[in-house]
Amino acid sequence: MATATNFHVFLAFTAIFAFLSLAATATTIATKESVYDLLPKYGLPSGLLPDSVTDYSLSDDGRFIVVLDQPCYIQFDYLVYYETKITGKLSYGSITELNGIQVQRFFIWFNVDEIRVDLPPSDNIYFQVGLINKKLDVDQFKTVRSCRDSLTASPCHGTKTPSSSFKCSAQLNITVCDLAYETVIFVWVVVEWLPAAVDEIPMLLTE
User: Fold this and answer.
1) CA distance from start to end of the chain
2) Per-residue pLDDT tens digits for 83-132
3) If DSSP codes are grouped into helix, strand and coil, which group holds residue 158?
4) Pair type for strands 79-91 and 132-137
5) Does residue 7 lie within any of the structural domains?
6) Which of 107, 104, 115, 89 is nearest to 155 (CA)?
7) Does the pLDDT at position 63 exceed 60?
8) Is residue 180 one of the residues assigned to a domain?
9) Contact (CB, 8 A) for 72 and 145
10) Residue 139: predicted pLDDT
11) Does the keyword Signal belong to this entry (predicted)?
């Protein structure tokens, strides 16, 4: 009789434990905030990411992974490209060690290495691309935008993606486009590699 009673008590405790575990799991899933709610808590605008985020993870040291349903583009002051997987390190007012976001300048795509805002907040947000710290109006990033999966027709981009080689649109003369491309590349190389006195080399250029 005592054995049966103990067995019933064991079953009762097992059932209660299983119920509490399931309830805790359900609560954790239900209370996971969206990445769009998370960004403002770090002083960053929620519209830095498109509306197509399907999942994200954030570790204790601030490292994160954001997953989109597909690569896509958003037109801000500059055209921005988002890869399916975006990684970086999140801290208050900045995202560093960023991978998976690119910006188009002069028909060429460049990786965005860091995004930050002023502290205390101002009207500006900064995209660091190599040695260039591009200052932009932060208001354009306050609204979460839809993300398109392809480029619309515009001069000299054809159907390329940021990782593909530069191609001209069929409507334009290939020689003219190639010339424009080569000119941009030449200017970029000269600016990046032209020798200068050590004390004249800027650590970071803000434009």
Assistant:
1) 84
2) 999 999 999 999 999 999 999 988 899 999 999 999 999 999 999 999 99
3) coil
4) unpaired
5) no
6) 107
7) yes
8) no
9) no
10) 98
11) yes
Q: What is the distance, to the nearest Å, from the Cα of residue 3 to the centroid of all Cα atoms in its chain?
A: 61
> Can you tell me the distance from the alpha carbon of 145 to that of 201, in angstroms, rounded to the nearest whole number?
38
Q: Which letter does DSSP use for residue 148 in this model?
A: B
Residue 85 lies in a domain: yes
In a domain, 17, yes or no: no
Q: What is the 3-state secondary structure (H, E, C) of 32-74?
A: CCCHHHHHHHCCCCHHHCCCCEEEEEECCCCEEEEEECCCEEE
For residue 76, give the 3-state DSSP assignment.
Answer: coil
CA 193 to chain centre: 28
For residue 149 the two structure tokens come to: 């999966």
Q: Say which residue, 198 or 97, is predicted with more confidence.
A: 97
**Six token digits for residue 192:** 């990046």
CA–CA gap between residue 35 and residue 33 (Å, rounded): 7
